[in-house]
User: Fold this.
Amino acid sequence: MNREGLINASVYLALPVLALAALALDEPFTITLATRAAILALAAVGLNLALGLGGLVSLGHAVFFGLGGYAMGILASHAQSYAPLYDGWFVVEGTKSMPVIWLVAVLSSALAALIIGLLSLRTSGVYFIMITLAFGQMFYYFSISWPAYGGEDGLSIYVRNSFPGLNTLDPIQFFALVFALLSLVLWGMGRIARAPFGLALSAARQNAARVETVGLEPFRLRLVAFVISGAVTGLAGALFADLNRFVSPTMFSWQMSGEFIVFVVLGGIGRLFGPVAGACLFVLLEHTLSGVSEFWLVYVGAILLLVVLFARGGLIGSLAGREVADD
Amino acid sequence: MTEPLLQIKGLHKSFGALRATDDVSLTLLPGEIHALIGPNGAGKSTLIAQVAGGLAPNAGQIVFDGVDVTAFGTAARARAGLGRTFQISALAMEFTVLQNAVLGALGASRSVWRFLKPVMRDAEMRAQAEAALDRVGLSDEAQKRTADLSHGQRRLLEVAVALTLAPKAFLMDEPMAGLGAEGSKRMTTFLDSLRADAPILLVEHDMDAVFALADRISVLVYGQIIATGTADEIRANPEVRSAYLGEEVSP
Assistant:
């Protein structure tokens, strides 16, 4: 195992070790904190495919996070009020089943990513950033002004949704579920990065003309990457809403999109475990510094500045050095 | 007469009042090296961009291997069999040399929509990439980062990537640019052997290389082709001599 492999393994194992230690010490809040870090990591792992491998600086990934959140909120609220979602030629009931909610979250955010991608990927650079931001704001204001699902106040769910065979109300069991999903997605992302698609996507980021000259279309590569990326962030959104048993327009806000970028940059852009390291560091700072000062984000800002100025590879990059080519 | 592989018919391209390409017609025959020369500002880059697919002509037609490719984009023309190299190396600088070559093999294999199998472990693509690197003499550098290559090696890699596509024709934009006398000579020898693979439309400033390699030469001046012929015919053409070669070049 090379150095990056060792660092990745320690980042990966830090969360379950923390969660198990907290379980042994009977500190359920710490388990919840670890779960929160794992979910935010998952959202950022999704973004990392577009941002890191594809070079697409999306300031609109909160759209998918929020769609995942509202997929959970809408389905669960109908289930808890026993009012069908749609009652016409056929009946669509709400549901409290996590697998179904995840599927809806993934599909709806993938569809949104497809539409947003089709429109925004025709631009690049700052225009791409602005268009993705604009989509984010559209969803944000729509969710605020749509009263059916709580509008500005958001939507509360009384009981966490269920997963067959697990008691999801038990913090450690819910953590295990989230961590299993994160592991699965990380495995998938690791494969994608080394697969033909990943090579072509990475090449399109480095030199689009080169990719065209070998007969590949950068636009299609980026669009597919954007859709997969959005779907993963959408899944994270459903989990995040389930963790809090609450969903609100905040999940659609551009600050949320910005935080995902911060996770990726802090941890190391384009590194498989970068977003995991970044999200864990962020949650850790949030937890420790918010006790010190209510202006804790100032310190996060300062750290981000240091990383951008002096450690361009982020946490993983500065520890592991330049990425070693796969063979 | 053999059917030309690439036919450019009556191509026009204007930028405002400037006629960068003014009724250009030329052909590329199987097995030949057709050089396109012309002084700076003659419109060579504009013409190359239209042939490669990056720029749409205002009028005219480009037929490649019996297919009208005028409306094709760059990628579609590459898939049709046009292997292009750039004047300024366009490579994925963070990749290893081998990864760049595998990218070419990947493009040629049409199997980019695979998400799980590691591409660098694909024996077939790897073999294709290694064969291409071997041909240009870059086998020893295969694991080097592309950014660490010398300028001359990048030029060779550029050609190697085009080779992995097994194209029906090469379109080369100044492959000798910045190579120096020794490198230029090596590249000339190599391109000479390449015409057996596929014909080359060669844009080049290095006159020694052009006269050594080209079966036919076309001279582009102010967007128009003023002469097409063998090296000897071009040397003897008074119009070309005054417009381009200058009196100090003696045949």
Summary: Strands of chain A lie at 86-87, 91-92, 155-156, 246-247. Chain A has 13 helices and four strands. Chain A has one domain: 3-320.
